[in-house]
Write a structure and sequence with these properties.
Layout (H helix, E strand, L loop, with lengths): L1 E6 L4 H12 L2 E7 L2 H13 L5 E5 L5 H11 L8 E4 L15 H28 L2 E6 L9 H20 L5 E6 L3 E2 L3 H5 L11 E2 L1 H13 L4 E2 L3 H12 L2 H15 L3 H8 L15
Parallel strand pairs: 1-2, 1-4, 2-3, 4-5, 5-6, 6-9, 7-8
């Protein structure tokens, strides 16, 4: 029996990972903040034939909740063989805002939680000489579109560091760097997507399938689709001044007017925060 734990496993990329791993014979532990959606997802998976679906309601911006999930990862009674650190949300706001609460939450959910859960899984898996840790990063981490880029750059660098530390232990550590994926992620973040060409959009299930193939062959970084592999190559090798120019053009083309963003959030922050820690 093998078990996978997926954070943000009730929708989007997280739900696709949960279904794909279930088809590969994994029992599942789903972590998300919304208990209703957790229950619905669990029932759906059981109806599809998954023998065991455990749910943990946790807000990964709360340290006590992070620690509860970490305890589950280190449990020896029912070990976790595959961790997918997927929970996250979009950040649509200026780095100059006086109120940095959304940025603090982003660092908690997409950096601190990844660090703590990755460490817990790494210790447990290293002791058993087997296991997989997969962190969901983004190609956005190779450009400079605000704090989301900074967070995802950290996720990629952290993954490579953890892979180095666990090399030779039997534990595989990887990060997937998606491009634009058709989920509710952008809508929840209040990000306009009309300017993004259709050819750049990826299907979540296709992305997950390619990622799992890359993980199986031992890749530390997975960039699904040929078109994003090409973009990733250029963002890694172009001069940074060129990347900053491109980043500015991307940001200006997708940002909503301030009045619209403020109306969406009920504040002047210009940030549409997801209702759960998930939602890629």
């Amino acid at each position: 029996m093998v078990t996978a734990l997926v954070t943000g496993g009730t929708s989007g990329i997280g739900a696709s990972f949960a279904r794909a791993l279930a088809l590969r014979g994994y029992d599942l532990v789903l972590v998300a903040r919304d208990e209703k959606r957790l229950g619905e997802m669990a029932e759906e998976l059981r109806a599809e034939g998954v023998s065991s679906v455990e749910t943990i309601s946790a807000d990964l911006s709360v340290r006590a909740d992070i620690d509860r999930v970490a305890e589950r990862l280190e449990s020896t009674d029912s070990p976790i063989d595959f961790l997918v650190n997927n929970a996250g949300f979009g950040i649509h706001g200026s780095l100059l805002e006086r109120d940095v609460s959304i940025h603090e939450r982003a660092l908690d959910v997409m950096c601190l939680a990844v660090l703590v859960l990755g460490g817990a899984a790494g210790r447990s898996m290293k002791a058993r000489h087997r296991g997989t840790i997969l962190n969901v990063s983004s190609v956005a981490g190779t450009i400079a579109t605000g704090n989301y880029s900074a967070v995802k750059a950290w996720t990629t660098a952290y993954t490579e560091g953890l892979a180095v530390e666990l090399k030779g232990t039997g534990v595989q550590v990887s990060a997937v760097l998606p491009g634009w994926v058709r989920t509710e992620f952008h809508e929840r973040a209040g990000i306009r997507t009309r300017s993004i060409p259709n050819v750049l959009w990826l299907d979540a299930d296709d992305l997950v399938a390619e990622t799992l193939r890359d993980v199986a062959r031992g890749a530390v970084l997975s960039v699904p689709s040929k078109r994003f592999k090409v973009l990733f190559f250029f963002t890694r090798h172009l001069p940074r001044r060129v990347i900053r120019y491109i980043s500015g053009r991307i940001s200006s083309s997708r940002n909503k007017p301030a009045e619209s963003s403020a109306a969406n959030t009920g504040s002047g922050s210009g940030v549409q925060q997801s209702s759960a820690e998930v939602k890629r």
